[in-house]
Amino acid sequence: MLHIIVCIKQVPMVSELPWDSKTGTLKREAAQGMMDPSARRALEAALQIKTGMGQNQAHIIAVSMGPPMAEEILYEAKALGADQGVLLTDPCMAGADTCMTAFILGKFITGHCPDAGLVLCGSMSSDSETAQVGPQLAEVLDIPAIGYARRLELVGNCIRVERHVDDFMELMEMDLPGLVTIDHAGESDLYTPRYVALGGVETAFKAGDVRLMDGAALGLDKNFNALTSSPTKIIDVYSPVTGKENRVLTGAVKKMVDTLFDDYGKIISSAMGKDLKTHDHEGDV
Amino acid sequence: MDFNPCMKHQLIRKTVQEFAENEIRPRAAEMDKGPGFPEDLMEKMKPLHYFGLQAPAHLGGAGLDSTSYAIVVEEISRVSAALGLCITVHNSVGIYPILRFGTRAQQQQFVPPMAAGESIGAFCLTEANAGSDAGGVETVARKTDHGFVLNGTKIFVTNGGICGTILVFAVSDTVPSRSSVFIVENHTPGFSVGEIEDLCGMRANPVASLFFEDCAIPADHCLGTMGQGLKIGLSALDTGRIGIAAQALGIAQAAFDESVSYAKARQQFKQPISRFQTIQNYLADMAVQIDASRLLLYRAAACKDSGRPFSSEAAMAKLHCSTTARMVTNLAVQIHGGYGYSREYDVERYFRDAKVTEIYEGTSEIQRMVIARDILTRPT
User: Fold this and answer.
1) What phi-psi label fits residue A95: left (phi over 0), alpha (psi between -120 and 50 degrees) or beta?
2) Is B361 a catalytic residue?
3) Are both B171 and B297 inside the same structural domain?
4) How many CB pairs under 8 A join A and B?
5) CATH (domain of B151)
6) Cys-Cys crosslink for A226: which of A96, A255, A277, B377, Cβ 3.0 to 4.6 Å?
7) Measured between beta carbons, which residues in chain B are less than 8 angstroms from residue A71?
8) In chain A, whose CA is at the least distance from the CA of B56?
9) CB within 8 A of A159, min separation 6: which ones?
10) Is the pLDDT of residue B345 over 90?
């Protein structure tokens, strides 16, 4: 029996959220949440591995850390086919950076899933895009990790991983237990997530067995505070404002080109990395 | 009293929205040129239980509650009301009467292929001289040694062109004073489909006349007991009204959403038209009616789920949702101006689709009758 842990995260459905200037974290409650698209691809990979192994050969546990509202994505994971859903939720976990998130997820896996053979994560979440939790979790668990996988295949007690880096396709094998992050936007549609079947939602809620675990259940110190324990401090979050000055050149073509070069030649030259005035155009094709 | 949707209903809505936005929206305008639904789209919907919304899991359905059902129909209709119509009619007046009145054998024979989407349901009450007057049915079912032989013509049958399992209201010679309901399969000799109606709206749905000429069916294809037609019909329509209310609400919501974004984007007199008080008043009126519709609809669905009577509640929801759909789509076209009258903009389709929600599954006048009857027969 292969025990697969899929780490999933709830992200806001909108692209821009207000943030809390005191904590430097996003005000996630201001928007509807959804399962992070990259994590959903990781769950899809787990479901395909399970299907490929045959009945009762694999067991999928979806785990998330987040506020109580994140319970929804665990029901969604169960609706999609995960065997178990676990939400790690406690006010003391609020404000965790990637390092503390990995620490808390690691506490759960070491303490409650000692048989975990394969840990899958999305390569990066759509709201913070750090791509750090997966590798950091592997460090916490002291297991090998491969990031940005396109395709997985179980070979004995190894996992064969295909990933696309620059213009190369890499094929690697890694002993299990190990951790793999699934590419967040692969060109291949192998792990394009399936749609949720309505009967799956009904069954998941009827069972109603998503497990909620607080800090005490995980064995965290009673004074643990993820925000103050996080080594990363966000100083500021803002949308960059780019000032654009638009100018429409008019008149005869020669006049327009002359004006362009006279007024903007230096900017264009610096952007192109060569001096337009001295460049010999005769050699150009 | 909690007005917030529960987590399950939120997830159901997101689930349907994701499918509808990705798979249906890109094709909705093309589908409107109809009739018929793309085969590959229907194939994608089948394993996701869209054709067995409330059928129990052991018969291949999703086993959803009525509020979830209303949410599904609302969200599909927000993108394509004609497909929402197919879904709601199939599930509510197609499958539901078999679940409610059918024998165990009938449920096991007819429901699994329907819930799998392999056999689409249709409900045949309306005839040339019957509709709001359900007692005017002239289709006859003659008793024979082996079962019944049906003769008659049904008109304006939703899903008519694609139906597989058909509930037919007919008067039998054994109980001539009251109608009965018979289950006819589309491969039965003597059954045929007429021309697809050229309708104002819901153009993707192949609404058609259905002909029954010496259509012989086995005796065990009678639904419920002989003469129970009116009871089955009214019960089916109570459920159907929740679906049509949800459909109308989906159309209204779609028209409203388009209107809000258009009003923010459309510039006149060097400012977005949303800055004008007239447009703001329109949007406020639309929002109030949509919200009231949604509350009435969910109350009716909750009544049904709790086992309480819901006939009047469903009629109120259907009446208000359909009136809202007409009013909101009309204002949506008005806000869009000339563009709203063009087929390039979706509000034109919503405007055409909305009207019929005041007509089918009981006209608004019939809904008022149902509501008034309930008021006047309450114990004082």
Assistant:
1) left
2) yes
3) no
4) 62
5) 2.40.110.10
6) A96
7) 7
8) A199
9) A118, A152, A153, A173, A174, A176, A178, A180
10) yes
What domain range is A65 assigned to?
A: 2-229
Catalytic entry in B23, B138, B361, B365: B361
Q: Which residue of A has its CA nearest to B65?
A: A202
Please indicate, yes or no, whether residues A276 and A179 belong to a single structural domain of this protein.
no
Decide: B210 and B153 in contact? Cβ < 8 Å: yes
A197 contact B CB<8A: yes
B235 and B365 belong to one structural domain: yes
pLDDT tens, B168-194?
999 999 888 899 999 999 999 999 999
Co-location of B267 and B320 in the same domain: yes
Give B-chain residues touching A76 at CB under 8 angstroms. 11, 15
Between B109 and A242, name the one with better pLDDT.
Answer: B109
ipTM of the complex: 0.92
pLDDT of res. A216: 95
Inter-chain CB proximity B7 and A79 less than 8 Å: no
Q: Do B18 and A79 touch (CB under 8 A)?
A: no
Same domain, residue pair B259 and B358: yes
Any alpha helices (H) in chain B, and if so which ranges? 7-19, 25-31, 39-45, 66-79, 81-88, 96-101, 104-115, 229-265, 277-305, 311-336, 346-355, 364-377
Structural domains of chain B, count: 3
pLDDT at B377 over 60: yes
Inter-chain touch B11–A72, beta carbons under 8 Å: yes
Residues B235 and B362 in one domain: yes
Q: Which residues of B touch A202 (CB under 8 A)?
A: 8, 57, 62-64, 68
In a domain, A46, yes or no: yes
Which pLDDT value is given to residue A238?
Answer: 74
In a domain, A240, yes or no: no
In chain A, how many domains are there? 2
- The CB density around residue B254, as the number of other CB atoms within 10 Å, is 29
